[in-house]
Write a structure and sequence with these properties.
This protein is mostly beta strands and 221 residues long. The chain has two domains: 7-113, Immunoglobulins (Immunoglobulin-like), CATH 2.60.40.10; 128-220, Beta Complex (Ferric Hydroxamate Uptake Protein, Chain A, domain 1). The protein has two helices and 15 strands. It has helices at 109-113, 142-149; strands at residues 7-12, 26-33, 43-46, 52-54, 60-64, 71-76, 79-84, 90-96, 128-132, 154-155, 161-162, 176-179, 182-184, 195-201, 215-220. The longest helix is centred in the middle third of the chain and has 8 residues, at 142-149. The termini are far apart.
Length: 221
Amino acid sequence: MKKFFCSIVVLLLALPVLAQNEGAVPFNGVIVDVAGKGIKNVKVEVKNTSKYTKTDKQGRFGLTNITPEDTLVFSIKRIRHEIEVGEAKSLRIVMASENTDEWKASQDDELVDFGFMYVKRREFTGSASGLTEENLKGYTDLAEAINALVPNVTVSSDGSVSIRGQRSLVASNNAMILLNNQEIGSVLDVSIYDVKSVEIIKDGVGYGSRGANGVVVIRTK
């Protein structure tokens, strides 16, 4: 049996500054081999804490509220490897079988575009609802689909989204809307035929004060 981990390729992604150090801030990652195949059931621990998770069958993992001072420990084939988090908001690790010590960095849109995607539901303390491209079939308008498919969420005629209802008589009650990580003002600006997924995050504290009314994360194909 080949001995894994002669090389670690780490991606420290600089995501847009959407998440603040408060609430359920996501930290996402993926562990793959040199062929790009995800490595499942890898235990990922936060050193000197009881917090841990395991990768899914695609090698993806999710944690919350990870600080720059934290160190992640990956256990593979009884070998432990430590990586300091620093300012990273997500992490890509490539396990190699060749005897080399090469480090590389590359972009990973799966981690960048959908901040809460890999956070395990048991670790995400908020409430969220997800819509996939399959869910949207049969609808011709994104606002109509959200109104029909997501309980307690209302899309107004101007395309603004209300997740928590009327909370303030003075301040805006509109949710933050992100299209491929860029904030937009209305879901009417998005063609439903371009949408790959929609995540309605009812507790958007991970996005700072701007996400106080919830966050709608739209990802296109």
